[in-house]
User: Fold this.
Amino acid sequence: MAATAPAITAPAVTWEVTDGIATVVLDLKGQPVNVISRAVKDEFIACFAALADDARVRAVAFFSGKADNFIAGADIEEFVTLTSAAEAERLSADGQEMLDRVARFLKPIAVGIHGACLGGGFEFALACHYRVATDHPKTQIGLPEVQLGILPAAGGCQRLPRLVGVRAALDMILAGKSERAAKAFRLGMVDELVPPAILAEITVGAARRMAGGWRPKRKRRGGIMGFLLDGNPLGRLLVYRAARKQVLEKTGGHYPAPLAALEAVEYGMRHGIAEGLKREAQLFGQLAVTDVSRKLVQIFFATNELKKDPGIANAPPPVRVHRLGIIGSGFMGSGIAGTAVAQAEVDVRMKDADLARVAQGILAARAILDDRLKRRRITKYEYARLIALLSGGDSYAGFGRAELTIEAVFEELGVKQQVLREAEAVLPSASVFASNTSTIPITRIAEAARAPERVIGMHFFSPVAKMPLLEVIPGARTSPQTVSTAVAFGRRIGKTVIVVQDSPGFWVNRILAPYGNEVGHLLAEGASIEDIDSMAVRFGFPVGPVTLLDEVGLDVAVNVAGVMQSAYGDRIVPAPGPGIGALVKEGRLGRKSGRGFYIYTGGKKRGVDESVYGLLGIHPNGGPRPAEILQRLVLGLVNEAARALGEGVVRSPRDGDIGAIFGFGFPPFRGGPLRYADDLGAERVVSDLERLAERYGVRFAPSEVLQEHARRGTKLYS
Assistant:
């Protein structure tokens, strides 16, 4: 995966020769990261040709000139200009040819890796003869190409399996993984792991040893299972079958890139590296021009743009948060606390009504760090240091120095206003107060504030540690610096941030409201829970809407539904019958209580709880046709998204689609609900909605925004 490189105005590749060792440095001037573009390829080729002819040079040591980046990958701007499979195949073949020259270079090459070494950057490292990496957390190594709907096509599908074994290579390639350097070393992806301070010394030393005739000896990894599965064709056949099954289960067949990468690996291991490279290039050519890849690349560009977007025009510099206050130590509060410590390493002080709750919250926050330690994402020394940043109590002691305080208390206006009054009495005058509300307008909460300009919404999604989206919601009087502070902190803790207008449901919950509401209507008409969920999953959602209700929590869903019905009236008409409130009264809150629509054991879904039908007073008898189930779920969501965009709830279609994809899993390969509407065409969407409205009522009436685009023949994306 990569960034964008402009035309190179100064040499990107430079070198000097000392005592027979050529030290080569790649540094794209004026750019934050190194990427491999056509111009860089030409410089690479010229550099290695010169080094080959230079009699002084006995070996090469290669480095990046960037402080915290090795090579981020290929230049995606060049990738998106490809117009045919043949052109894409040629681009891949050119990259393979360049790296083949590196691999066959007669003088040994040692490479020193610090920072991101991804995609084409790692493929270059694989072609070198010895790899040294720093143990710094910023050193991430991997092949994330399938996340863009393509595959590693500069030899990655051929060289990595031969280096670390087929199983380990497929695990990385098919998931688009990147690994921290410590794990990369354990897997055999790099030969040495060193502190950053001695990277240059160790890499040059390795080059010098190889110049003297020494060659690294690499052991087969994985023990007896490695030999049985990676070391012979029959064993590899079992690995390929298992990998194919796993990919299909995970992707539902919607994403062709992982299966193509599997084919490239399998073909190369069977027919040799030369034939494997040809097949790799052919498959890349086919993938590069697919609609799926184009959509995933659009998402990549959108998320990169959001990383630089301060969230408001002419934004003042944000306040740097060193100390964070959390009010409410329940599921959300502890999740925010643990994520903030793990990602931003800030001091976190938690507060709740009694010490027992605070203790539980601190334990839940620590569980996020426990998981990182277990996965070897942090060392035991880092773990001890981060744990020390968590504290709490039943008073506001310690909040007097917090630059940011986030409340995560019960979703009730009066409660949140009372917490705001209490907090303002002790917080510093310049401190920001954020509400983690999912539906209550921030302006209403801020009515209780002495300084409403410092009050803002920060809507996290559950579970906080895993969900990538954060909605930042300015109130009517929120200051620009408060907005930029909330956005900047959200990014520091690893979230993709969108700024959303202060209106009921904000963006995600608003556009989800028709989707969740339609579940009740479908159930009332005889559709089964399994049919509703399976149709959504077939469309590409990670889970169906019924499962999503269980995940969110049925008590939360009832509360949100009440707010949305009050705000949007006849568009969110509940189905006849007792509704999911009947399940909440029975203590069925979804996954968190072990029972909802489904039964959960040990946190895992075990199947539909058939007694739900009786509680809801309904009987599954086939219901609407599957195609109609899907159309009613999706078009209601798309219609509300277009309407909310027209009202300015999000600043752009980009923000809206990223919010839907990262907030509740709208299928990325479809680009988001607004991009999906453009692909269908407004005229078709309006026609389908009008037909549904005739049968099922005003909740399907097409929005004015879609009607206007249908009349003009225009798109939501300009």
In short: The chain is about 50% helix and 15% strand. Residues 1-8 have pLDDT under 50 and may be disordered.
